[in-house]
Design brief:
Elements lengths: L10 H18 L10 H22 L5 H30 L2 H15 L3 H7 L16 H25 L5 H29 L1 H6 L5 H12 L9 H21 L12 H13 L16 H5 L2 H8 L1 H17 L10 H27 L7 H24 L9 H7 L14 H5 L4 E4 L7 E7 L1 H5 L1 H10 L3 E6 L21 H15 L3 E5 L10 H17 L3 E5 L9 H7 L17 H7 L1 H12 L3 E3 L15 E2 L2 E2 L9 H5 L2 H9 L7
Parallel strand pairs: 2-3, 2-4, 4-5, 5-6
Antiparallel strand pairs: 1-3, 7-8
């Protein structure tokens, strides 16, 4: 497929879109492409390139038609989005429990206000509902683009107005490209720093993502003289670009620090392909002048996927998210046949959306005037805000669900209210949050150091400390291992700053002569891909703490379940008998030991340091050797792996000896 020299259509860009959306869809469906999420970054580069190119052409004709630009954006984005939202609302009303339906209502409001990225950023805390169960989570990237679409034309209009009196049109364009480069560098630096300091903010906010769109803008604004001169140059650049994309797609993983510097690979790869496939004026569009990657990117099936890529992106995630929401079949993801079915259905709905929604609006077959499309956009925005607000106002309409199901679903709210973050400056000054008897004069009998799993134990530890009139101090941060010289890789944790907290804890224990230090964490997630490094670090941490004069207690993890426990129990109470009994599918003791093999192997080494090891698993097993997930009609877990307050109190026998001072080793 070779473009005519008179045509501005770039089938290779549709092919690049097709590759990007396939990466994203297959990643979300857990069907390959570990780093498939980088397809979104490819979309950002493409969007920046195409949108800026269109705006530069308008500038060459005299000025930017702002109303016309936004009309085109409305026709491109809104109709297909609105259809998807209506269907998701209906499906959500049928299967989502009140807390999830309330969240859906909030996301309806956020997307209508073009701020879905900010909503999911603030809703992305460690204990927020599982990201893979939020039907509109994927709209965060659309919000980033929409915010960019608002700012970019305004920047160009202002720049043209200010510069055109003293510069020619070509000079204005070149100056604006240099402005884009400056903004791109600032945004990239913010992204790199943001990933290290606050990965969630760096992931969702425009200022840390803008450089990816601006890379496309710079590419669109480069003088024609900068285009590659011959096929050999194009082969090198295009080949390298495709390699960069594929390396990111296959080598990156969910815990890769992202975006930051890691986003360079997919973004530079996309830019390289677009640049290498751009011909110079007067150059004949012949196969001899184009690199071999052109044939790949213009392969008809790939281009066809690219044509429906927007609708496919809109539809694939809600279907997978809702399938995940009702999944209680184990392994934390729906069976492969369900995932394949969701993807195939997404393709069908995407084609239907492109054929009967996208194209009629873009060709102005319906809503033919600018006024009508603006009224439609405004009306839909108001409608979605009102609908979403009503869902939130009525707390997710709980009357839709049976009372027994609601009792179980309420387990998601039965979580401890103890701090899960620390002020690093404060802890370095020896200031830690307290539990038990919080009298400032009372001696500290225990330091509790760990992550959210340590916090899950706090209800019973706090109660025991109060009964024995003891004070405990807490050093807990989500997704952060209680180790010296090692940190857990997670977007929600302290990351490289783990060492600051670790050193502060050791210093506090030493200076305050705290007699007991309890370490608890989501141990199976801590090793990353370095179990040896983690093991050595934990043993060294226990040794250092012991030398500091404290008795170290390592609490092994509670069994992780293959499904969200409160939701699974609640789904089991819905009429119709559609869902299996989750109690028959809980984790066995054998499976639990297998999942925690690293910690199981580490126990002898920990005991050699003088540490004591406590194992809660036996207290959470039923007579069938499976994990207990309900007690007295209430859920024992908040989600897959965190205990409820009621669940924590089941571990009282495990800690009574520790707190009373007469504990004996579990092993």
């Amino acid at each position: 497929m070779i473009p005519s020299s008179s045509s501005s259509y770039r089938p290779d860009i549709d092919g690049l879109r097709g590759l990007a959306v396939l990466m994203v869809v297959l990643f979300h469906a857990d069907m390959g492409f570990n780093g498939g999420y980088t397809g979104v970054d490819i979309f950002f580069v493409i969007s920046g390139y195409l949108i800026t190119g269109l705006l530069f052409k308008e500038m060459e004709r005299g000025s930017i038609d702002l109303a016309g630009f936004w009309e085109r954006r409305l026709r491109r984005i809104t109709p297909a989005l609105a259809v998807m939202l209506v269907v998701v609302l209906a499906l959500g009303a049928a299967v989502l429990f009140p807390s999830a339906f309330t969240s859906l209502g909030e996301s309806f409001v956020a997307q209508a206000l073009l701020s879905a990225n900010l909503y999911f950023w603030q809703d992305s805390g460690y204990f927020a509902d599982a990201a893979e169960e939020k039907p509109l989570l994927h709209l965060w990237s659309l919000a980033v683009e929409e915010q960019f679409y608002i700012l970019l034309p305004l920047l160009l209009i202002f720049g043209q107005h200010w510069l055109k009196r003293r510069h020619s049109a070509d000079q204005v364009r070149w100056i604006m490209v240099r402005v884009f480069v400056g903004l791109m560098v600032v945004s990239f630096v913010a992204s790199v720093v943001g990933v290290a300091m606050d990965a969630n903010t760096a992931f969702y906010w425009l200022h840390t993502r803008a450089w990816e769109l601006l890379l496309g803008s710079v590419l669109a604004g480069l003088p024609e003289a900068w285009r590659l001169k011959n096929r050999q140059q194009r082969e090198v650049v295009a080949g390298l670009g495709l390699v960069l994309i594929l390396v990111a797609a296959f080598a990156y993983e969910s815990d890769t620090a992202f975006p930051g510097a890691a986003a360079l690979l997919p973004c530079l790869g996309a830019a390289g392909l677009i640049w290498a496939h751009s011909l110079r004026a007067g150059e004949k569009a012949q196969a001899e002048s184009l690199p071999r990657t052109w044939r790949v990117m213009t392969w008809k099936p790939l281009v066809a996927v690219g044509l429906i890529s927007y609708s496919l992106y809109l539809w694939h995630w809600p279907l997978l998210a809702l399938a995940q929401y009702v999944n209680i079949f184990g392994d934390n993801s729906p069976p492969v046949l369900i995932r394949v079915g969701a993807v195939l259905l997404a393709f069908l709905l995407a084609w239907m959306s492109w054929r009967w929604v996208e194209m009629p609006f873009r060709r102005k077959s319906i809503f033919k005037t600018r006024r009508s499309i603006f009224l439609m956009g405004a009306g839909l925005g108001v409608l979605f805000i009102v609908v979403g607000w009503q869902i939130v106002r009525h707390e997710g309409l709980p009357e839709r669900m049976p009372e027994a199901a609601m009792i179980y679903e309420g387990g998601k709210q039965d979580r401890p209210e103890f701090p899960l973050t620390v002020d690093l400056e404060a802890v370095q000054q020896g200031q830690f949050a307290k539990a038990g008897m919080k009298d400032a004069e009372a001696p500290v009998a225990m330091m509790i150091w760990g992550d959210s799993h340590a916090r899950s134990l706090m209800p019973v530890l706090d109660a025991l400390c109060q009964e024995h009139r003891l004070t405990a101090e807490m050093a807990m941060y989500s997704a952060t291992s209680p180790t010296l010289g090692f940190y857990r890789r997670s977007r929600n944790g302290l990351g490289v700053r783990t060492e600051i907290l670790a050193k502060a804890v050791v210093e506090r224990v030493r200076k305050a002569k705290i007699p007991n230090t309890l370490l608890a964490a989501y141990w199976s997630e801590c090793p990353n891909k370095d179990p040896e490094g983690f093991s050595n670090a934990l043993v060294e941490t226990a040794r250092v703490l012991t030398e500091a004069g404290t008795q170290v207690w390592v609490v092994l993890d509670v069994p992780t379940q293959p499904f969200d426990v409160p939701k699974a129990l609640a789904l089991g109470r819905l009429p119709g008998g559609w869902f299996p009994n989750p109690a028959e599918r809980t984790t066995t003791l054998e499976k639990h030991r297998e999942i925690n093999a690293v910690m199981q192997a580490l126990i002898p080494r920990l005991l050699e340091t003088g540490a004591r090891v406590l194992d809660p698993a036996d207290l959470l097993m039923n007579a069938d050797g499976r994990t207990l997930i309900e007690h007295d009609g209430h859920a024992v877990y908040v989600d897959y792996n965190h205990l409820t307050v009621k669940g924590a109190h089941l571990l009282r026998p495990l800690f009574e000896g520790l707190v009373s001072g007469s504990a004996t080793p579990k092993r």
